[in-house]
Amino acid sequence: MAPSLSLLLICLLALYTPVTSKKECGRPPLGDGKELEGFQRVYSPGDEVVLSCKRGYTPTSGSRTILCTASGDWTKSKLTCSTKSCSFPEALNHGDMEFVDIVYQSTINYTCHEGYTLQGASTIECLYDGQWSDPPPKCTPVICGLPPIPKYGKMVYDRKLTGNTTVFGFGGTYECFPPLVLIGNERGSCSTNGDWTEPPECKLVTCSAPTGIINGYMTVSDKREHGFKETVRYGCNIDYVLDGPVEIECLKTGDWSMKPACRASCKVGIKRGRILYNGKKFWIKDFKPNKISHADVVLVYCMNKEKKCGYALSTQCIDGKLKIPECFEEPSDLTYKFNYDSLPSEIAQC
């Protein structure tokens, strides 16, 4: 065979010989908190790369090196990156803080209670180096001036006052010089808006001469004006009961407190029968004197004709009036005298 022909055949065979190529690796998977320097897209088998932790993360364990294998896969990374933490925040006096975590990029929101002002950042963030972006703020009280003092009055402070300023919550009690009366707020304090609460006034208060009550009397006979907190007592005539306070007082409004009234007693208006009063049974002829006081309760007996049993029903004396229940049936004189054991009060009770 000619040498030139042999060379041609060898070249043709070379074209059809299979070529075995090695697979390449893409960029390695990084996972949380990891990073890789450089921007190389493709790696050859045998190439090694070194992983590191991102800013704000700390390596805790495992090798940083991974290898591109002939199969085009990376060896498994054993590097672990944990998020950096900041110090636990101290409690905010007179305020609140809101946060979920104290790791890198976490935030804390601060607010102050009513009457206090935030001094510092309202939000701070945990930075990559484990430090907070700002120092924690403080809540300082609202500042007021000195309290307004009413004419002819004074204020007794809750604690010692120093200087010409006061702070939120500082306060005291107002007093008027006798015989003047304090009208308005008895206490004052430095409020949330930096002003003091509305001060009271000191006034001379008198009430007109007290008047009597029907069927009663007063313990004083002089018809004069009375000053604030002066009192007058009342009583009732015989057979009347005092309904209300025994004593009335001159109020700071210049009016008297509510007067009592004298209420009349009541007569039990039945002629024949038995009643229950103060836990005891009485035949009406033996109930002497036939009188109960205002607001007292007496029970009369009625008949349940269907069940043939008796029952007691109450009624109350209201200022001389006592209504006998409609179910009460007064027995005849003969029944009352000779067959009284058949009355509703004497038979079995329902």
UniProtKB/TrEMBL annotation:
SS bonds (residue pairs): 25-68, 112-139, 207-250
Any single GO CC term annotated in Swiss-Prot or TrEMBL for this entry: extracellular region
GO molecular function annotation: heparin binding
Coiled-coil zones: none
Pfam family, one: Sushi_2
Residue ranges annotated for the Sushi domain, each copy included: 23-83, 84-141, 142-204, 205-264
Signal sequence residues: 1-21
Principal localisation: secreted
Transmembrane segments: none
KW 4Fe-4S (keyword) present: no
Entry-linked InterPro entries: SEZ6_CSMD_C4BPB_Regulators (IPR051277), Sushi/SCR/CCP_sf (IPR035976), Sushi_2 (IPR015104), Sushi_SCR_CCP_dom (IPR000436)
Swiss-Prot/TrEMBL keywords: Disulfide bond, Glycoprotein, Heparin-binding, Repeat, Secreted, Signal, Sushi
CDD domains: CCP
Intracellular or extracellular location(s): Secreted
Superkingdom to which the source organism belongs: Eukaryota
Function per UniProt: Binds to various kinds of negatively charged substances such as heparin, phospholipids, and dextran sulfate. May prevent activation of the intrinsic blood coagulation cascade by binding to phospholipids on the surface of damaged cells.
Protein's name according to its UniProt entry: Beta-2-glycoprotein 1
Gene transcribed to yield this protein: LOC120032937
